[in-house]
Amino acid sequence: MRTVVEVRAGRGSPMRKGRGRLDRPTIVAAAIAVARTEGLSAVTMRRIADELGCGPMSLYRHVADRDALVLEMLDVVAAGIEVPPPVTEPRAELVAVLTAVHAALAVEHWAVLPLVIERLASPRILPLVERVFVALARAGVAGRDVVAVNQLLWQFVYGELLWTHHDRPATFARQMVHNASSEQYPALAAAVRDLPDVVTDHFDQNLRRLLDGVLPGSVTASRDA
């Protein structure tokens, strides 16, 4: 089931000018609504002020700057993650936590860019990050490998979201691959010949493949399960 973050601006429709009293939740809700319909690049202090029917300086009484606004937006997304109850088996715990995060960001896909490009993050995500580290330690990942594997898992989550939810069928790269010479690149041509125009979501399967490679004894355990 997909996670949907509710905001006071509604889902996908920017707020009408002059709606209600101006406060921080109203500003954040308007910014999320704009990000959903127009992308994160459209979220500027001037754009949100125009959406709310006020001057940009009115926003600064409630939000310090754009970075602060984006952090507030990420707080809303993090608060909307349907956090699963902890389980003791490390592989199942990692699957549950990372799948919950992925489900929320698959809906609020604008949020991936500030996480990856602007290196922003909500403190609300720290309990889930802690659970990932605990699960990795319980699985036998030790020393510096814990940090490296943690990074790898989050890179996979964010990268999959960027690939699947920000891709478009008619991009130059996709056309280039589909039009590649079957004589010069036979393996590539065979692989993409029957691909659909829309990118397929392989998150669940690929997460399990990734865990097979990074968790000690995971391949054997998953085969025996």
TrEMBL record:
<feature type="domain" description="HTH tetR-type">
    <location>
        <begin position="21"/>
        <end position="81"/>
    </location>
</feature>
<keyword id="KW-0805">Transcription regulation</keyword>
<dbReference type="Pfam" id="PF02909">
    <property type="entry name" value="TetR_C_1"/>
</dbReference>
<protein>
    <submittedName>
        <fullName>TetR/AcrR family transcriptional regulator</fullName>
    </submittedName>
</protein>
<dbReference type="Pfam" id="PF00440">
    <property type="entry name" value="TetR_N"/>
</dbReference>
<dbReference type="InterPro" id="IPR036271">
    <property type="entry name" value="Tet_transcr_reg_TetR-rel_C_sf"/>
</dbReference>
<feature type="DNA-binding region" description="H-T-H motif">
    <location>
        <begin position="44"/>
        <end position="63"/>
    </location>
</feature>
<dbReference type="InterPro" id="IPR004111">
    <property type="entry name" value="Repressor_TetR_C"/>
</dbReference>
<keyword id="KW-0804">Transcription</keyword>
<dbReference type="InterPro" id="IPR001647">
    <property type="entry name" value="HTH_TetR"/>
</dbReference>
<dbReference type="InterPro" id="IPR050109">
    <property type="entry name" value="HTH-type_TetR-like_transc_reg"/>
</dbReference>
<dbReference type="InterPro" id="IPR009057">
    <property type="entry name" value="Homeodomain-like_sf"/>
</dbReference>
<keyword id="KW-0238">DNA-binding</keyword>
